[in-house]
Amino acid sequence: MEELEQGLLAQPWGWLQLDENSLMAKAYITKQGYAVLVSDLQEVWHEHVDASVVSQRAKELNKRLIAPPEAFLCHLDDLLRPLLKDIVCPGKATFSCDRMAETLILQVRSELSGLPFYWNFHCVLASPSLVSQHLIRPLMGISLALQCQVRDLAALLRMKDLEIQDYQESGATLSRDRLKTEPFEENSFLEQFTVEKLPEACSVGDGRPFVTNLQNLYLAVSRQEIQARRRHQDTGDPPASSASPQGTDHHPLNQQEEPVSSAPSPPVPEKEPPGTLGPVQRPQLSKVKRRKLRGLFS
Fold this sequence. Notes:
298 residues, alpha+beta, Dna Repair Protein Xrcc4, Chain: A, domain 1, 7-stranded antiparallel beta sheet, 8 helices, elongated, disordered C terminus
């Protein structure tokens, strides 16, 4: 059963478009059973069953079908996998859901071996620890990873500005004026982003932007969590929090902290406060004759 839970953590969130509403969902199905997680952004439901439960429920819902539980599990996997990956399979199955007190029943109707096949996922409210494991901690990890990424990109832009300044001081000019840019100022950029782009960027909606755009990063963060648990099991030491990438602080970008990343960071002057985006001393340039530049500059 622990294998099912770890397998579920390693799965991306998918999208279930139902007639009555839409749900985020993830599932992990093996020959031994399945684990599913469903959310409408208000509540999270969960079901975790083994092959014996599958066999009993299949007999109750499909009296005309006689097959081992592995066959039913394989069929459920064939139905859910393309759906959660947003692959259209017309006519293969229909889904609906009923909500009762602390329970969500996800109903599936399809065909198996030419006979009608019915299945009900009986999902109960997920525990707080499960919600933390699959949503809160990965989302915190994603936020910190994106913060670290933005810091690295800001440092790269500063170095690009220094490179352009060097070209200009050597007499190079742009061949096309439309390519001209202003030096990057992080504080101004953050202020403009907050005013102009933040409302649209953080629009959660019904959860589909998260499902569509962030699943690669979600999986990367989840894998870090799984690896931390395995190290903890092997060594017995307390697992390090995967929601905090190594070297990443917890302060906003415009606070004076030194950005750290896995890749070597561009050098900054010692006298400059760490993490700020003020003027940076231009590195000492060797006095060598430069060749005529081509491409963007002429």
